[in-house]
Amino acid sequence: MAFELPTDLTPELVPLAWLIGTWEGMGRLGEGEAEDEYFWQRVTFRDIGGPYLEYRSESWLTDAEGNKLRVLTAETGFWSLDREQLEADAGPGMIPGDVFPVLRSADDVQKLHTKDGFKIQAHIVQPGGISELYYGLIDGPRVQLATEGLLRSKNAKQYASSTRIYGLVNGELFWRWDVSQGNLELKAHASAALQRVAANEATK
Fold first, then answer.
1. What is the pLDDT of residues 3-47, one digit of tens each?
2. How many angstroms separate the CA atoms of 159 and 150, rounded?
3. Residue 29 and residue 20: Cα distance in Å, rounded?
């Protein structure tokens, strides 16, 4: 599906703009070996008018033909550039920010660019009492994230750290997720290739 950059984005969302929309497709758990299970996934990155993208992911276990068997998991969260929060920013909670965005132009945003890309953060909440804070980089159509902090409820399963990578290749969103469940070794957790099926569903 052809994608046109929205013309009314908050300036600091421009580096993240290629993610906006709803993506669907198939993936594999683990390394994707013959015995590893299949899943189907829908991922949405949505601009709702703030200096962040709302993120939601829903996944179902499937058979090899893509027939859904049962719900696998869901995630929700927010992605944004990683920068100091100023008095003009909204929050915490429902404290309103200034009418005008803190970064008002492409030049303002470009000042945050490093030699490796823009620094970003992603806050992702999983079922089962796990909340992740990722820091990373977005460099054109590539994202690299690694957990900076984890919050687990007292009854949550072991989960120590993770990394996620995303890339736009020939119009498809490829991603991989590696996880450590209690030691220093990260192991392949899941990966998928998704196609954009809808543009932004903004509520502005």
1. 666 678 899 999 999 999 999 999 999 998 889 999 999 999 999
2. 8
3. 25
| Type of residue found at 2 | A
Q: Please choose, from the candidates 101, 93, 110, 91, the residue with its C-alpha nearest in 3D space to the C-alpha of residue 47.
A: 101
Binding residues: 157, 189
The amino acid sitting at 61 is: L
Q: Which residues of the chain fall below pLDDT 70?
A: 1-6, 201-204
Please state the residue numbers annotated as binding site for heme b.
157, 189
How many angstroms separate the Cα of 84 from the Cα of each of 6, 55, 112, 139, 182? Answer: 25, 21, 11, 20, 31
pTM above the 0.90 mark?
yes
- Number of other CB atoms surrounding residue 2 within 10 Å: 6
Query: What is d(CA 117, CA 139) in angstroms, rounded to the nearest whole number?
Result: 4
Calpha distance 81→15 (Å, rounded): 8
Contact assessment for residue 59 and residue 51, using Cβ atoms and an 8 Å cutoff:
no
Closest CA to 130 of 105, 155, 103: 155
